[in-house]
Structures are given as C-alpha cells and as structure tokens.
Description:
Shape: elongated
Radius of gyration: 12 Å
Largest sheet: none
Distance between the termini: 20 Å
Number of strands: 0
Number of helices: 2
Strand content: under 5%
Order of helices and strands: HH
Amino acid sequence: xxxxxxxxxxxxxxxxxxxxxxxxxxxxxxxxxxxxxxxxxxxxxxxxxxxxxxxxx
Length: 57
C-alpha cells in the first residue's frame, strides 16, 4: 500500500471516529463539519482509485 492510500484511509478512519463522537455528544455543528470532511475524503479516495468500502468478513 502506498503512502497516499495509507494516509487517506487513516484520515477517513479518524474522521469517522470524530463524527461518531460529535453525534454522541449532540454537537450538530461539529457533526456537519465532520460529515462534510468525510464526504470530501471519500470523493478524493474514489478519484484516486482507493476502495474505501468496509471489508466483508
């Protein structure tokens, strides 16, 4: 896995966690910010051919 793929996947993971925390504490503004960031990261990943779908066990 190259550095870009590793980095984008880590950023997606971190943003998903931050989004969950924002929702848990009821911070709607922060949740909106994190949701927007997550959408941007997923779009960027898709543009570069990085599969961000959850792995099925």
